[in-house]
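The data are passed on as follows:
___
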Amino acid sequence: MDLIRIQLAGINIEIHNRYPYTEQLCKDYLTESGRMDFTVSVTEEQIKTEQEQTDRDFSPGYCESICIYREICKKLPSYQAFLMHSAVVETDGAAYAFTAKSGTGKSTHVNLWLRKFGSRARIINGDKPIFRLGNDNILSVYGTPWCGKEGLHINTHVRLQAIAFIERSKTNHISEMNPGEVIRRIFHQLLMPKDKDTMDAMLCLLDRLIQTTPCYLLKCNQEQEAADIAYRAMKKAGG
């Protein structure tokens, strides 16, 4: 078994891996820090189960990397952090997160932002970023190498400006959501812990997110107007 050390969202993690895939995947996140916050590893049984649960012919190394990230994410709430399935684009120093059911068009939408803003915008992560509450009580979004099939990620962090839940529509419309609406939708995009202490930490983080982060329902098509409407509302909300 090999050993690598990475830093995600400012958290130092030691990984014991069987296959080289994870080390290659995490090459931009390797750290030389001697202080590790926690260690993760997975069993061959976990890897085999992951392979059996998909209808695609994924390699053991790829499946191990998915299992490893799942184990990492289970520990994140203890460090004021959590995974939320979303695509995140940075524009002018602020992060805008877009979340939806798989296949709804998160990647398509953030690409509209790249087209709109050019060099002013970049994708922080295309699918599985980490959100972390800092000592300044501000939520930031961090890139991770687990980022979806497009492979879009940057090892950086950016202050979270707003979140939009995407639904497909023939026309473009955005409206702010109340806390109850956010709660009903957001749990579908999270990996929730099972033990009580970590669950309590997670719920505190979600409460902080809902109380401080503007959240929207974005009904949109794939035309450029969708990005224009989303940006105007989400930027204004953050002040």
